[in-house]
Amino acid sequence: MYSMLVIGFSAGGIPLIKRILQALPEAYALPVAIVAHLPGGKQSCLAELLDDVTALPVGTAMDKEILQGGRVYLAPPDYHLLIEQDGNKAPAFALSLDEPVRSVRPSIDVLFESAAEVYESGLIAVLLSGANSDGADGMAYVQQLGGLGIVLDPAECEFGTMSNAAIKRTEVDYVVNLEEIISLLLAVHEKS
C-alpha cells in the first residue's frame, strides 16, 4: 500500500509532468510532491500552469504544512523541500536554505531521501527528463528503504542525463515510457 508520490525533473520535464498530472483522477488518494529545477530569485508560474491541466489542487508547499492526499505540492524556487515526521504526528513539509546539492536548490535528492525516511516501502519515486544527475542518489535511497522506483526511459527523454544517472546508480523497479508511468500510477490509485 503506497502513501506518497514524489516526482523530480529538470530540463525537458514540463510537458511530461503536465501529461502525468492530467491523467491522475480527481480522487487520486496520494499526496504528490514535485521538485523541478527552476531559476531562483523569480516568481514561478509552474503551479498555475499545472493547475490548468489537472483535477487535483496544485500549490507551492509551505513550511510545516501537513501533507494531504489528492493534492499536488511544488517545491518553492530556491528552497529544498523535505518531508519530516515528528513522532506520531502526521508528515509535514519542511523548507530549507541549506547549500545546493549537485549545484541545485531545490534538490530532487533531498526530497526523495527525506520522503524515503518517512514512508519507506510506502513511497513511489518518479524521475523524468533532466540534464544533470540530481535524483540518482535519492532514487538509490528510495530503493534501499523498499520504495518503488520508476524512471522514464532515457530514450524517451529530451535530456536523458538524469534518467541515465539513476539507472547507473541503482537497480530501479521500472524503466518505462511515459504512458507506462501513467498506467503504474493509475494502478496504484485503483488499489488504494
Describe it for me?
The mean pLDDT is 94. The radius of gyration is 15 Å and the shape is globular. The chain contains six helices and nine strands. The protein has helices at 14-23, 46-51, 108-119, 136-144, 161-169, 178-191; strands spanning 4-9, 32-36, 58-60, 72-74, 80-84, 92-96, 123-127, 148-152, 174-176. The N and C termini lie close together (7 Å). The chain has one domain: Rossmann fold, CATH 3.40.50. The protein is 31% helix and 21% strand. The strands form two sheets. It has a seven-stranded parallel β-sheet. It is an alpha/beta fold and 192 residues long. Helix 4 links the parallel strand 7 and strand 8 (148-152). Helix 1 (14-23) packs parallel to helix 6 (178-191), helix 3 runs parallel beside helix 4 and helix 4 packs parallel to helix 5 (161-169).
Query: Numbering strands along the chain, what is their spatial order in the largest sheet?
Result: 3-4-2-1-7-8-9
What is the N-to-C succession of helices and strands?
EHEHEEEEHEHEHEH
Total count of domains:
1
So, the CATH homologous superfamily?
Methylesterase CheB, C-terminal domain
Highest-level CATH class: Alpha Beta
- Tell me the span between the first and last alpha carbons: 7 Å
Summing up helix and strand content along with how strands pair, one would put the structural category as alpha/beta
Number of helices: 6
Can you give keywords for this protein?
192 residues; single chain; 6 helices; Rossmann fold; alpha/beta; two-stranded antiparallel sheet; seven-stranded parallel β-sheet; globular; 21% strand
